[in-house]
Specification:
It contains 3 helices and no strands. By secondary structure, it is an all-alpha fold. The protein has a domain of 32 residues.
Amino acid sequence: MDTDFAPMTVAGLLFAALATVAIGVYGVRLARTTSDFLVASRSVGPRWNAAAISGEYLSAASF
């Protein structure tokens, strides 16, 4: 097993963990109530919703 890339692997994992925490903190600031979280504060437009439904359908169809 080659360990030359171990520092890069650790750095990548650390970056992913910090990015996840940052996105979570940002999300908590936007969604204060359960209703805000469940309906995205009613801010999702029809095109974003259509893209999400299409992506979900295509993902399910590939299996």
